[in-house]
Amino acid sequence: MNYLQWLSGHTDSVWWHDSANMSEAERALAWGAQGMTTNPFLVNQTLRSPKEEWDLSTKGLSGDQKALHAIKTVTTTYAQKFQPIRDVGQEGRGYVCAQTNPNKCGDYHYMVKQAKVLSSWAPNIVVKLPATRAGIRAYEECVAAGINVAATVSFTVSQVLAVGEAAKRGKERAKAAGITPPLTIAVLMVGRLDDYLRDVAQDRDLAIGEDDIRQAGTACIKHAYTLFQERGYDTFLMPAGCRGAYHISALSGAKMIMSISPKIQDELVSLDEQQFVTRIDEPVDPATLERLLTLDEFARAYRADGMQAEEFITFGSTNRTIDQFINSGWNPLTALER
After folding, report:
1. Residue 284 has what DSSP assignment?
2. Are the CB atoms for 66 and 332 separated by under 8 Å?
């Protein structure tokens, strides 16, 4: 038994594979992966890999039609692979993510309409929406309609709390309408937050070292986890965009769905049995937290009231990530020739 098998089989944690490559997905399944996260960047990456073979033709399609067809081909293929796990009926297991057009992160009506399309592809599709003000509005509407959803492009405690509230309202509406409440996920991209804060700290010549920066995203998601429990949210937090095994091991044992890339899977399976311990209840060092809070962008990310909904789309990490999803994901898929 390796660390990943221990994590998925002997703790409250669930982990999903973070890649769209076929060989990597098969290995992840053998190691206990219970679902898969994808995004336009990962779909584009696998379809342009010479090692990957996909039954896909884009003839007669153009623009966004191409992107949607490509994403549908990849996600429905994996949805079939994970459906037997979902059939077992354990919460948070057996799902595959498909993300809406990142060019439309502020367009509520567009996102709701596209979410309905993506969710129709398979019963175990989880639609990823951005944790912008408009995206969270769309998230609630999808929950009320019984659509499985994950709020992505999210880096702060205030964002995931807003998602938790939206999920709660949406589930109440679903129940009132006789609809079974769906799976709801709130992503916190811990490693991408670290990357952003590292640049800000260096730009401002602050005495915040790398050891502190590596704890920033972890501090935020541990804080959010405590608040979710206090407020009774049943939405799963999902650490994503991780940069090393340390991001996952620090959260081990938490009732979360963890998104883990192949690189970090390799790091985790190399851990010995002495490291098979739950660490979610270990707090971040108070001195580290004190130093991090001298950085105003970390304070915005960490505090429950650090940002208003109107600010979510303007946060530095948000702009960086949306840009990657657009220019290295969705837009190249609109030009894919197969």
Report:
1. P
2. no
Ordered alpha helix ranges (H), 48-155: 64-88, 108-119, 133-144
pLDDT in tens, 176-207: 999 999 999 999 999 999 999 999 999 999 98
Residue 156 per-residue DSSP state: S
Structure tokens at 56: 């896909």
63: exposed, middle or buried (Cβ count in 10 Å: 0-12, 13-18, 19+):
exposed
What is the helix (H) or strand (E) element at residue 239, kind and residue range? Answer: strand 236-240
Helix (H, G, I), strand (E, B) or coil at 86: helix
Q: How do residues 5-53 score in pLDDT, each as one tens digit?
A: 999 999 999 999 999 999 999 999 999 999 999 999 999 999 999 999 9
Cβ-based burial of 202 (10 A; exposed 0-12, middle 13-18, buried ≥19): exposed
List beta partners, residue 238: 187
Residues 6+ apart with CB under 8 A from 241: 189, 190, 191, 192, 193, 259, 321
Per-residue pLDDT tens for 133-170? 999 999 999 999 999 999 999 999 999 999 999 999 99
What confidence score (pLDDT) does residue 295 get? 97
Q: Give how far Cα 52 sits from Cα of 19, 324, 331, Å.
A: 13, 22, 20
So what's the pLDDT on residue 97?
98
What backbone torsions phi and psi does residue 332 show, to the nearest 5 degrees? -60, -30
CATH for 3-331, options being 3.30.565.10, 3.30.830.10, 3.20.20.70, 2.40.50.140: 3.20.20.70
d(CA 332, CA 260): 24
Return the closest-CA partner of residue 150 out of 169, 132, 163: 163
Q: Say if CB 125 and CB 146 are below 8 A apart.
A: no
Closest of 49, 51, 17 to residue 31, by C-alpha: 17
Q: Model pTM?
A: 0.98
